[in-house]
Structures are given as structure tokens and as C-alpha cells.
Amino acid sequence: MHESERTSVLVVDDDPDVVRTYQRYLEAEYDVAVAFDGEEALDVLESTDADVAFLDRATPDRSGEALLGRIGERGHDCRVAMVTAVDPDFDVLEAGFDDYVTKPASRADLRSTVERLVALDEYARNVRQYHSLVSKRAALGPEETDAESERSDRFSELDARIEREREFGVEPDRLLEDAAFVTAIRAIDDDARSEADG
Amino acid sequence: MADRDVDGYPVGDVLPVEGFETVPEGTNLLVAGPAMTGKRSVVLDLLAAGRGRGDRTLIITTDASANRIRDQFEAVGGRVSPSYLQTIDASGSGGSAGGEGVQLVSSPSDLTGIGIAFTKAVDRMDDADRVRLGFLSLSTLLQYVDRERAFAFFHVLTRRASAAGYFGAFAIDPSTHEEQLVNVMTSVFDGMVELRESASGVREVRVRGLSGVASAWHEFPL
Fold this sequence. Notes:
The complex is a heterodimer.
Chain A: E1 8-12, H1 16-26, E2 31-35, H2 38-47, E3 52-56, H3 64-73, E4 79-84, E5 99-102, H4 107-140, H5 149-165, H6 178-197
Helix pairs in contact in A: 2-3, 4-6
Chain B: E1 9-10, E2 22-23, E3 28-32, H1 39-48, E4 56-61, H2 66-75, E5 85-89, E6 102-104, H3 111-124, E7 131-136, H4 138-144, H5 147-163, E8 167-172, H6 179-186, E9 191-197, E10 203-208, E11 218-219
Parallel strand pairs in B: 3-8, 3-9, 4-5, 4-7, 5-6, 7-8
Antiparallel strand pairs in B: 1-2, 9-10, 10-11
């Protein structure tokens, strides 16, 4: 996510009415950028970091899927939801999308999708931060590597508890939902990629 | 005693460790041992110990083909029909074809692919209430993926397995990594089975992090 507090959302659809409607639904809470075709969407992403993008499945010059591929190739760390008129007859997750919304999308549909995807992205970031904390502690704490058992057991028990009780922002039960599970892993993959590029 | 009423995952015969009889639901164990200490066999034995209860098995392999894993699992008494065993082959070995019981992922570095394959494998089990999850091995994955990404991946995977009430056993060869890396990885897991060769050349094992199991070393001859 970029520096500012507000989440930024990109809406891509070739129908100006649809774009305007979604913009109206979203702009009270989010920074909204719009694009009417795939080229424009890529241009927008060059200059602004979107946290979440809504891609119309049937944007004329590029289908939503092709545009998604380009977004991935360029290393944009952006969660992507497909907007589609009919329920998709393929595996949306496998196609690289994090979620989908069926037209006509209501204000509530769009917002809950943004919130859900942002929460999973943040979860991935929190876990990475947690990794750096644990790494630091491991570098400092010789007692953790102590082979004599009772004491180091208590340490690892404590660690396990800290781990379990720590707030990562997403309850473990949420990960039972396949889309959330895959999106969290994809966010980890993407984070690493955009960091390597930057 | 009606076996079905027993909570947790029985593992009684696998290790000569007092108290290590049943692993609670939602537990993920790291199985750590250098080469030639049989950690792969221990993982497979922990998984196969569920055959009497009809537990399902899901094995993610990054270092051997699905076919080899199936043969090895069958050799230790595991049930290998697709409704019992699902394998995710991310070894990139080309040694197996995808099929009813096998999901192929192009490389160990494709974490998203492994995640998607996991959801499909679970879908294909006719009954995914009780699942033993094996991962062979963390060490191979760490050759392809940086530590932070690997850590985060195992965090998400173990949390899902835990929320679903599975029992997970994940192999790692600590001798191929810095000690610190292994310590960091252990924080993702609930406990650890450690294997080593003693000074006199006898294999030993201990279990750490599980309540009711003392963490003393026990002889465990190969």
C-alpha cells in the first residue's frame, strides 16, 4: 500500500456510466482513479499505486484477464477483483484474480470487496513484519538455541503463544475460505516481487 | 473403545517417546533432522498412522515426484487411493502426470500455485474433516524462496491447517541452514520432532513444545 492513509482504488470499465457510478460509490472513502480501457489503466498504474483494482472482464482492447497479466508482469502490488456480468465459468483464483463482483455491483458489494482485499494485503504485510521481529529476537537470544531443554521449551512455548495471540488483523478462520487463503499467499508473493524490483 | 470418539490424531507407534500418543487437532510439527536420520520416514509414518481411522492425507512435495511419494507412502502402509491421498507435486521434476490424486505446480517458487493446488486437493477429498498434512521439505523450498517469503507462506499455510483442525508434519534439514533460520522457522510451528545421531552413532529423537511430552532425548535406532 502507498504512504497515504486512504486506500486507493482503480476502476476500469469501457462504459463511462458504470465508471461514474462506481466512482460515486467509492470516492467518499477511497482515492479513486478511473480508466476506460486497458492502456489507460496501465498508464494510471505507472503514476499511482492502486491498492485495489476493479477490472471489467470485457474491456474492449484487452480483456480483463490480459490486463491482469500485464499488471502482474510489471510488478504492481495491487489486489485485483474482476467485474463480470455473469458468474464466471472458470476458476477466478487460478486466472490470477483475487475476487470477483457481479454486475450490477452495489455500493456495499464494492466496499466490502475493497475492505476484504485490503485486510488480506495488510495481513501479508503484518506477517512479514512479524518475521523481521522474530529474526531480530533470534539474533539476540542465545537462550533460544540452548540445548538444555526445560528452559528453552518455555521459551518456545511462549513464542508459540505470542504467535497465536498476536493480532495479524485476520482471524485464522477467515483462511478457511479458499479465496482469502489464496489471496493472502498471492499478496506475499507480490510483495516480494515488487520489493525485488524496487 | 470406540476409536471415533478419540480426539486428536493417534501417532502412538511412530516414536519411542513417552506421552507422544496423540497429537491434538490443529497441531503443526516441524520434523528436523540432518541427512540420513530418516526425517522423511518419520513424516510419512506420522501421516500413515491415520490409516486405521480413515484419516485423509495431503502431501506437498518440493523434492521428489508425486509418484515416488506415493510409492514410499504405500510402503509404510499408507492408503494411496485418490480419495485418501492427495499429492501436490511442486518438485518441477516432471516425474509425474497430474491426475485424480495429483496436483502439479511448476516450481517450488510458485507459492500462489501451491496455495491454489492446496484448495483443489482439499476439494477432491471426499471427506476433509480429518486430514494429515505432510510437507517435504522446507529445506528445498528455502532454496527457491527467500526466507521472509517462505516464513510468511508457512505462517499462512499452518494457520489454515490449524483452523481446519488438521495435523501437519513439515520436514526440515537443519544442517543445511544457519541455526538462526531454523529458530525463526520454529516460531511458525506448535512443536518440533528432532532427530540426531549421538556420539556413539545411535539415532536419537526428542519432541519439544507439546504439553504432556517431556523433551528428553530417546534412543531411536535406525
